[in-house]
Amino acid sequence: MLNKQGFNLWADGYDKTVQVSEENGVYPFAGYREILNTIFNEVMEMENSRVLDIGFGTGVLTARLYENGHHIDGIDFSQRMIALAQPKMPNANLLEWDIANGLPAEVKGKQYDYIVSTYALHHLTDEDKVLFIKGLLPLLSEDGKILIGDIAFQTRQQLEACKNDSKEFWDDDEFYFVFNEVCSALEDYCKLEFLPISHCGGVIEITKI
Questions:
Q1: For residue 14, is pLDDT > 50?
Q2: What is the mean pLDDT of residues 200-206?
């Protein structure tokens, strides 16, 4: 798994790496553009919404939302990623923070219409993902939504099949979403839905109950 320094070094070539994987329809970024577009279109249902983006990277998704009038707070642990993203959205509030430490104090007292995260939460263990998502729920406005686009599977069997087909590239240091398992762990706290986009990715939508 890449650490902060690794992501700083990768930042300038990150978007190209994603593009190559997506265009070839292979793990890990097959369906990437459609996943981001699905989240973008959902957020665009509300004008001038308050958005928290967790792991915004170079700002591919967040900058589009910013350009369309949404109010952006963002968290990323890579200083170089932030440096690439900030000029695209100069008035956005972008924080350098590692979500392995939970949430920064600057966002804890706020309310958001949308909390989005793309290809970031798989760096947390399954147990930590559940705890982290529970911590996000109090930040949602009354009708707010959490939208997670990531490497994700409906079942553990589907994950194992993808792992077997992608042995040469599989990253054993990352923890991918298995929707059935996450749903079981969180169903008492929120409502979850899963939209598969590719064989290795999709969008998880979470709302309060």
A1: yes
A2: 98
Tally the C-alpha atoms within 13 A of residue 8's C-alpha that lie toward its C-beta: 9
Q: What is the pTM of this model?
A: 0.92
Provide the token pair at 122: 């798989």
165 alpha carbon, distance to own chain's centre: 24
Beta partners for residue 114, in sequence order:
51, 145
Cα separations (Å) of 100 from 4, 8, 105, 122, 132? 12, 17, 14, 11, 9
- Predicted pLDDT at 10: 38
Residue from 63, 74, 69 nearest 110 by CA: 74
Within 8 A by CB and 6+ apart from 155, the residues are 178, 179, 180
Please report the beta strands in the chain, taking only residues with DSSP state E, as ranges in sequence order: 50-54, 71-76, 93-96, 112-118, 140-153, 177-178, 190-198, 201-208
Q: Angle at Cα 149 formed by Cα 79 and Cα 157, nearest 5°?
A: 120
Please give the mean pLDDT across all residues of the chain.
92
42, two tokens:
């959902």
Q: pLDDT tens digit string along 79-109?
A: 988 999 999 999 999 999 999 999 999 999 8
What CA–CA distance (Å, rounded) separates 126 from 5? Answer: 24
Cα gap 32→119, rounded to integer Å: 9
Helix (H) or strand (E) holding 111: none
Joined together, the tokens standing for residue 189 give 């706290």
